[in-house]
């Protein structure tokens, strides 16, 4: 059965991580996503590891292959006028165009919204630049890792008394990509009902601040920058990550109710802690959080993290092992749910990739193909879709328009 | 008045973890009519705060207010039979039902899709849970922290070289935000399909999977190279690091592409160390960063943060400051773009908060109404929309359902 966006075509000008995350969601839903790539300026992700055997190659990156599953790829040098004209032809046959160059770059290529709407009046187009279109810093350059500090997230994240920290990944990218996909779907929904397309200006900076609402509300209400406080939060205790037996092994535990706290005491074999005046109520536990965490870590240090998690969950306590990549790949739960995708790829063979985090009962979503080898779909797009004769394709290939 | 992208769509939302509320917010802010069904003690986010003066009040919780503008609130006990009948009646004329009850609780509340579709075959029913609705961990308990751990984020977050420090959560309930945005976009996919098929369907979201799906290159490092997760990710290229400036500000120093590094070398006036073998490309800089780092630290420490940020960007080098909230609120760029919005809340007063995450040219994002008080729309939704009479409403109140 086809996915919900069956019949929708996406002209994909994106690169690096934010834009490709957006278009991958559309591909997951069955849209035909055509990545326009060029060997003249290869996508950053294709040039980054991991590569099987540590051997680089434009088609060998696990980073690229993870976030471009289910898309088509053509080689097209859109910096050449002929290339830009062909890109317009593809847009004219598409419903959606997505780009995440720095603001203004797409206009200089002659492929801005005003140009593209001439070839496709009801186009839905989204630009996902770092700083947004318009405003004194709109031509600033940005990448996902820089959105974490820029948005305020770094100042809010970290151990108590430590410097601002990163969050471990370039969160501005996937967060913008997912919000962009939602905005595109909303605009498509509107277009389907009214016949009208539109242009969407998205700033990765702004979409990252959108998921920091609690911080801004605290500032507005109490005039103070929230202090970095490790894993602790205002309203729950315990709420932490505790050391377990073994090297760098941990368990995360949170108890928001009396039942959960009693369950934790029980599993720790310390029922007397529930009677301890320092820990009797949630407010007591919060007020004596240092002592509380010391008591938990005394126990957890002698525990296997997975075994302790299982016993806590059996007692109704929220616990989870901070999972490393291998543990995720081998996780019985994720595997039983069929979360991972393993499709044959011409250069890296069959590798495990994270799949689709939603299930639809009536229009199932699936990854139909591994991420494309660069230019894998030139014949399909130029020959079949655009109907170019093979001599023309050969000529444009020879002159490095298709490059 | 401009059109709204989701005009006329009716959504019913039951929020427990923030995920359903965020999905509802994304839809409400583009024009959907979202009705929150709250238990008698209200959406749990009403207790979360932050609160003005740190004094708890159900209509002043910052988390609740931020997530619930543009929505209507109905206080309805759906564990009560009479209350449940009202919900069923409401869902008959609803396009989308979004909830984040854990699977076992959803079953005991009789909210399974197979049951809901009987009365409304067009309903899109979206259920969000920590681990999804199948598999051995289906019924495991979770808070945002444990969901982020189970998805692989916390182990990834920490400080390299400090194994004594625990895996760390990022600020805020990012598990809820990610499950929420995935729920909203999958729901829109199902609504799009419904335009053609006329049929609703069930959409299931696993918060754990939403996190595992966005671990950057970290996950792939196992199946591709059998390299385990590292704190702060692999960071295979450098520079990508924080440094403190002369005036105390923290600058994020980043060069992704080699040409950006070349321009940085120019900006630094080509010091000798940048010409060493160990600095020749982004990969060798990464392997030798411990040795190179002190030189960069020394250079950055001679600058004030704003000067260096501007000087780098003038050369198209993607540096960025670690902004504080007050710096963001004062940003001329964000002001010119009109990013922050002021919302006047009935109890909490006027608050400046993040605005549109995207600007749609024909159907703009907008705040139309502030977050509701608990049960503020009982009359409007149950009386006017459902057509319950005053005496029926009184009976429901009597039965403790409303």
User: What class, by secondary structure content of chain A?
Assistant: alpha/beta
Describe the oligomeric state of these chains in a short phrase: heterodimer
**Widest sheet, order of strands of chain A:** 3-2-1-4-5-6
CATH architecture level-2 label of the largest domain in chain B: 3-Layer(aba) Sandwich
Order of helices and strands of chain A: EHEHEHEHHEHHHEHHEEHHHHEHHEHH
**CA radius of gyration of chain B:** 25 Å
Q: Report the CATH C-level class of the largest domain in chain A.
A: Alpha Beta
Calculate the terminal CA-CA distance of chain B, rounded to whole Å: 35 Å
Class per helix and strand makeup of chain B = alpha/beta
- Largest beta sheet: strand ordering of chain B: 3-2-1-4-5-6
Task: Give average pLDDT of chain A, whole number.
Answer: 97
Greatest contact between two chains? A-B, 157 and 150 residues
Helix content of chain A: 25-40%
What do we call the CATH homologous superfamily of the largest domain in chain A?
Crotonobetainyl-coa:carnitine coa-transferase, domain 1
Sheet with most strands of chain A: 6 strands, parallel
Strand content of chain B: 5-15%
Approximate shape of chain B:
elongated
CATH topology (level 3) name of the largest domain in chain A: Rossmann fold
TL;DR of this structure?
Chain A is of the alpha/beta class and 403 residues long.
What does this structure look like?
- The complex is a heterodimer of chains A (403) and B (402).
- With 403 residues, chain A is of the alpha/beta class.
- Chain A has 2 domains: 9-211 and 338-398, Crotonobetainyl-coa:carnitine coa-transferase, domain 1 (Rossmann fold, 3-Layer(aba) Sandwich); 239-324, formyl-coa transferase, domain 3 (2-Layer Sandwich).
- Chain A contains 18 helices and 10 strands.
- In chain A, the strands form 2 sheets. In chain A, strands 3-2-1-4-5-6 form a 6-stranded parallel beta sheet, sandwiched between helices.
- In chain A, strand 1 (9-12), helix 1 (18-28) and strand 2 form a beta-alpha-beta unit.
- Chain A is elongated and about 85 Å long.
- By secondary structure, chain B is α/β, with parallel strands linked by helices.
- Chain B has 2 domains: 10-214 and 340-398, Rossmann fold; 240-324, formyl-coa transferase, domain 3.
- In chain B, 39% of the residues lie in helices and 14% in strands.
- Chain B has helices at 19-28, 62-67, 81-92, 103-108, 113-119, 144-151, 153-156, 174-197, 207-212, 221-225, 258-267, 282-287, 289-300, 305-314, 325-330, 332-337, 378-385, 390-398; strands at residues 10-14, 33-38, 71-75, 96-99, 124-129, 201-206, 240-244, 250-254, 320-321, 341-345, 349-353, 359-360.
- Chain B has a 6-stranded parallel beta sheet, with helices on both faces. In chain B, strands 7-8-9 form a 3-stranded antiparallel beta sheet, with helices on one face.
- The relative contact order of chain B is 0.14.
- The model of chain B has no long low-confidence stretch (mean pLDDT 96).
- The interface between A and B is large, with 157 and 150 residues.
- Strand 10 of chain A pairs antiparallel with strand 6 (201-206) of chain B.
């Amino acid at each position: 059965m086809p996915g919900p966006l069956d019949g929708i075509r996406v002209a994909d000008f994106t690169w690096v991580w934010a834009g490709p995350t957006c278009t991958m969601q559309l591909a997951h839903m069955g849209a035909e996503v055509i990545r326009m790539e060029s060997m003249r300026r290869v996508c950053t992700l294709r040039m980054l590891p991991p590569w099987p055997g540590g051997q680089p190659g434009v088609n060998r990156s696990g980073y690229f292959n993870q976030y471009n599953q289910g898309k088509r790829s053509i080689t097209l040098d859109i910096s050449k006028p002929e290339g830009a004209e062909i890109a317009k032809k593809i847009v004219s046959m598409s419903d959606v165009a997505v780009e995440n160059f720095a603001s203004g770059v797409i206009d200089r290529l002659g492929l801005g919204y005003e140009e593209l709407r001439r070839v496709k009046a009801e186009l839905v187009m989204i630009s996902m630049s770092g700083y947004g279109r318009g405003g004194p810093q709109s031509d600033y350059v940005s990448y996902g890792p820089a959105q974490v500090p820029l948005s305020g997230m770094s100042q809010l994240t970290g151990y108590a008394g430590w410097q601002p920290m990163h969050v471990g990944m370039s969160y501005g990218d996937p967060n913008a990509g997912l919000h962009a996909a939602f905005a595109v779907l909303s605009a498509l929904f509107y277009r389907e009902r009214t016949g009208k397309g539109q242009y969407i200006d998205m700033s990765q900076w702004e979409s990252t601040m959108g998921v920091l609402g609690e911080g801004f509300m605290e500032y507005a209400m109490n005039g103070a920058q929230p202090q970095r406080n490790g894993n602790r939060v205002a309203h729950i205790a315990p709420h932490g990550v505790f050391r377990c037996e073994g090297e760098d092994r941990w368990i995360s535990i949170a108890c928001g109710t009396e039942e959960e706290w009693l369950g934790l005491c029980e599993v720790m074999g310390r029922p007397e802690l529930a009677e301890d005046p320092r820990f009797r109520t949630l407010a007591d536990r919060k007020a004596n959080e240092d002592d509380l965490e010391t008591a938990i870590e005394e126990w957890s240090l002698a525990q296997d993290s997975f075994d302790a998690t299982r016993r806590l969950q059996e007692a109704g306590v929220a616990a989870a092992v901070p999972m490393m990549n291998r543990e995720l790949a081998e996780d019985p739960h994720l595997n039983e749910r069929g979360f991972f995708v393993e499709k044959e790829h011409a250069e890296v063979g069959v590798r495990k990739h994270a799949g689709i985090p939603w299930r639809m009962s009536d229009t199932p979503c699936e990854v139909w193909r591994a991420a494309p080898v660069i230019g894998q779909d030139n014949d399909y797009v130029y020959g079949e879709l655009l109907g170019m004769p093979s001599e023309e394709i050969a000529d444009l290939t020879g002159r490095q328009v298709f490059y | 008045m401009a059109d709204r992208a989701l005009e006329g769509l009716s959504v019913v939302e039951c929020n427990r973890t923030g995920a359903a509320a965020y999905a509802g917010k994304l839809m409400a802010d583009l024009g959907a009519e979202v009705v929150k069904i709250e238990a008698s003690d209200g959406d749990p986010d009403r207790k979360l705060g932050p609160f003005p003066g740190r004094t708890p009040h159900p209509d002043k919780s910052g988390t609740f207010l931020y997530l619930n503008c543009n929505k209507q609130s109905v206080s309805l006990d759906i564990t009560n039979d009479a209350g449940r009948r009202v919900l069923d009646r409401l869902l008959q004329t609803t396009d989308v039902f979004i909830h984040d009850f854990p699977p076992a609780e959803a079953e005991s509340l009789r909210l399974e899709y197979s049951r809901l579709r009987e009365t409304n075959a067009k309903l899109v029913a979206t259920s969000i849970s920590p681990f999804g609705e199948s598999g051995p961990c289906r019924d495991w308990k979770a808070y945002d922290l444990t969901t982020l751990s189970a998805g692989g984020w916390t182990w990834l977050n920490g400080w390299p070289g400090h194994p004594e420090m625990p895996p760390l959560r990022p600020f805020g309930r990012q598990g809820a935000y990610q499950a929420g945005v995935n729920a909203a976009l999958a729901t829109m996919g199902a609504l799009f399909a419904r335009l053609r098929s006329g049929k609703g369907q069930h959409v299931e979201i696993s918060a754990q999977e939403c996190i595992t799906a966005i671990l950057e290159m970290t996950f792939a490092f196992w199946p591709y190279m059998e390299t385990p997760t590292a704190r702060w990710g692999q960071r295979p290229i450098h520079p990508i690091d924080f440094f403190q400036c002369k005036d105390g500000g923290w600058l994020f120093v980043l060069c992704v592409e080699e040409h950006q590094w070349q321009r940085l070398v120019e900006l630094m006036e080509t010091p000798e160390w940048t010409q060493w073998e160990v600095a020749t490309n982004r990969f060798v800089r990464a392997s030798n960063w411990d040795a190179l780092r002190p030189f960069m630290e020394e250079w950055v420490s001679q600058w004030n943060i704003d000067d260096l940020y501007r000087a780098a960007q003038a050369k198209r080098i993607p540096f960025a400051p670690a902004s504080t909230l007050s710096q963001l609120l004062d940003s001329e760029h964000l002001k010119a773009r009109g990013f922050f919005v002021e919302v006047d809340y009935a109890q909490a007063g006027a608050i400046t908060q993040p605005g549109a995450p995207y600007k749609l040219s024909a159907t703009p994002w907008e705040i139309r109404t502030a977050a509701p008080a608990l049960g503020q729309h009982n009359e409007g939704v149950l009386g006017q929309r459902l057509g319950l009479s005053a005496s029926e409403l009184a009976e429901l109140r009597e039965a403790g359902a409303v």
